[in-house]
């Protein structure tokens, strides 16, 4: 990675950290450059606007989420339903580690920015579809193996699970406890 790329990544990661805690509207360019310990002009060398920064932050976070989901949900050494459960259980561990302060960066951006930025809304929709596609694939595999005998549509079920998960993350953040996440996990057995 070039020096330029390293500096851009430093600004991106520091700014994302601030946005995770304060949200898009609660974060200024000054907050981002202060967190990255760089002059304000450096921000504009890499990002033409705060919205452009947010788009790259969403892209970065979404790629991490997709890679993590791919690692777990496509591991054919593990039964498909166990992969689905493991995917959500590992996310619970992440939420517990940050004491439910941040929620899901992508979910937070969706709630805050979908009405004010079409570019962010469209990117988030596309990125969420990648993850639900991986979930749907695992659910379809479980049906093929006979692990799921109910007549579920994999894509619809994946969308439902992901949407319910995002709601559980939001509730865990609001209540600062894992109870909504455990309730979600408990429902996996009922659904399948």
Low-confidence stretches: none
Number of strands: 0
CATH homologous superfamily designation of the largest domain: Tetracycline Repressor, domain 2
Strand content: under 5%
Count of helix runs: 9
Q: Under the CATH scheme, which architecture of the largest domain would be assigned?
A: Orthogonal Bundle
Per CATH, the class of the largest domain reads Mainly Alpha
Q: Remind me, CATH topology of the largest domain?
A: Tetracycline Repressor, domain 2
Radius of gyration: 18 Å
Q: In the residues, how many domains can be counted?
A: 2
Principal-axes geometry comes out as elongated
Write a brief structural summary.
It is built from 9 helices and no strands.
What does this 3D model show about the protein?
This protein folds into 2 domains: 47 residues, Orthogonal Bundle (Arc Repressor Mutant, subunit A); 142 residues, Tetracycline Repressor, domain 2 (Orthogonal Bundle), CATH 1.10.357.10. It is built from 9 helices and no strands. It is 78% helix and 0% strand. The radius of gyration is 18 Å and the shape is elongated. By secondary structure, it is mainly alpha-helical. The mean pLDDT is 93.
């Amino acid at each position: 990675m070039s020096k330029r790329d390293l500096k851009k990544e430093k600004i991106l990661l520091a700014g994302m950290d601030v946005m995770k805690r304060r949200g898009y509207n609660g974060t200024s360019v000054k907050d981002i450059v202060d967190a990255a310990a760089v002059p304000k002009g450096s921000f504009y060398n890499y990002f033409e606007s705060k919205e452009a920064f947010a788009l790259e932050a969403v892209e970065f976070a979404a790629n991490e989420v997709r890679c993590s989901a791919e690692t777990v949900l496509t591991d054919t050494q593990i039964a498909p339903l166990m992969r689905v459960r493991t995917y959500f259980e590992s996310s619970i561990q992440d939420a517990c580690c940050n004491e439910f302060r941040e929620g899901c960066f992508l979910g937070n951006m969706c709630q805050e920015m979908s009405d004010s930025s079409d570019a962010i809304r469209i990117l988030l929709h596309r990125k969420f579809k990648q993850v639900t596609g991986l979930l749907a694939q695992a659910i379809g595999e479980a049906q093929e193996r006979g692990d799921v005998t109910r007549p579920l549509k994999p894509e619809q079920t994946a969308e439902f699970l992901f949407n319910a998960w995002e709601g559980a993350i939001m509730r865990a953040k609001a209540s600062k406890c894992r109870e909504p996440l455990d309730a979600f996990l408990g429902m996996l057995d009922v659904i399948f």
